[in-house]
Amino acid sequence: MIAALLVSAAALAQTPAADPVGTVSYSLPSTVISLEVEAEQEVFHAGPYARFASKYLGMEARQQDEVTYRVTGVQMTPLVEADQSARYSITIGSKQAAASFLALSSQGLVSVADASVNASQWRFPSPVAADFSSGTPSALTSGSTTLIQGGKKGSAAAVTQDVIVEKSLEKRAAETSENIFRVRQQRLDIVTGNTGATYSGEALGAAIAELTRLEKEYMQMFIGYSEYQSQSAHFEVVPEPSSASQKYIAFRISETRGLVPADDLSGKPVVMEITVPQMTVAAPSKKDSKAVVAHYRVPAVCSVKLVDGTEVLLKSRVPVYQLGYESTFPVNLNVKQ
User: Which residues of 95-119 are buried (b: 16+ CB within 10 A; e: fewer)?
Assistant: First the structure.
């Protein structure tokens, strides 16, 4: 689609004090690519018995606490605003400037596309310490030790004394694995009816649910557990026609703060790649020095990719005005009064 915004033969200065009396000024359109990004934070708590998972359960488990982020959703929207570097004026009042001329320029008569987006970033609260108390067997065990008390010369008395000693971490892991297999067997017995008690209806469902809950608590001691939170952020990319490589860092993902702006070097970059198509421009016709012309931009419909490392998060086609080309058309057409 051709967006026509009226211009004069000469461009105004970048920051004019005021437009001349009897003129109307406006700008050619420029495209801003707006991104609404959703991310998920995973706080993983490794189980205290993770290193024994292979030995007692025959499975591998993550052994280190981790905090990771991943992008879960991106919404890309092209927005049009006034390009103040391509601002022009035209004198109004001539019989040759028809009302249709003004209607055609309605988008550009008021160049106030400077409303910035107030993007708020929600930060994650401080991480909470892992809690494995529900699935932990007692760390203490009872035992006995023999004390030798000296008596008369050549004799000794053996005295047995009960003591409380702390179990080793592997001992507790072994006991927890036994509890897992015991719970699984009990659940199987209930489902198959291989038990002295009779379960039916709600009682059967409640018994199965409780055994499943217990198994989950015991398993967490080996495989750990994760807590998830979401984050939202807004970013904008303004493609530059002068850029040789149409690649931009759209935003970054920090290991500690999640979604952060492109200029925050603490994060891993997420790159926007813009592919500009070849455009055929009509050959210029003979110029009429007396003609009043309007300038307009034809947008380039570009392929846009958002890439996180090797993963393509989003791919779409977006019209980008400033990467297209500029042309003119005459506006001094005879008008019936």
Answer: eebbeebeebbebbeebebeeeeee
CA pair distance 252, 181, nearest whole angstrom:
45
pLDDT (0 to 100) of residue 40: 94
**DSSP secondary-structure letter at 166?**
E
pLDDT digits 0-9 by tens, 168-224: 888 998 999 999 999 999 899 888 888 877 777 788 889 899 999 999 999 999 999
Torsion of CA 215, 220, 222, 223, to 10 degrees: 120
Using one digit for the tens of pLDDT, what is the confidence trace for 223-280? Answer: 999 999 999 999 999 999 998 889 999 999 998 899 999 999 999 999 999 999 987 7
Inter-residue contact 306 to 289 (CB < 8 Å):
no
Is 153's pLDDT higher than 90? no
* Site of tokens 């971490």: 169
Maximum separation of any 2 CA atoms in the chain, in Å: 139
Strands 258-260 and 293-308: unpaired
Tell whether the model's pLDDT for residue 48 goes beyond 90: yes
| Residue 44 exposed, middle or buried by CB count within 10 Å (0-12, 13-18, 19+) | middle
Residue 298: phi and psi, rounded to 5, are -105, 115
Which conformational region is residue 263 in: left (phi greater than 0), alpha (psi within -120 to 50 degrees), or beta?
alpha
pLDDT bin (cut points 50, 70, 90) of residue 335 is very low
The answer to whether residues 41 and 228 touch, using CB atoms and an 8 Å cutoff, is yes
Side-chain half-sphere CA neighbours of 86 within 13 A: 21
Cβ count near 190 (within 10 Å): 18
Would the pTM of this model clear 0.70, i.e. be above it? no
Report whether 33 contacts 236 (CB < 8 A).
yes
| Structure-block tokens of residue 201 | 């209806």
Q: SS3 sequence, 64-113?
A: CCEEEEEEEEEEEEEEEEEEEEEEEEEECCCCCECHHHHHHCCCCCCCCC
Q: How many CA atoms lie within 13 A of 39 on its CB side?
A: 29
Q: Where do we find the tokens 């149409």?
A: 246
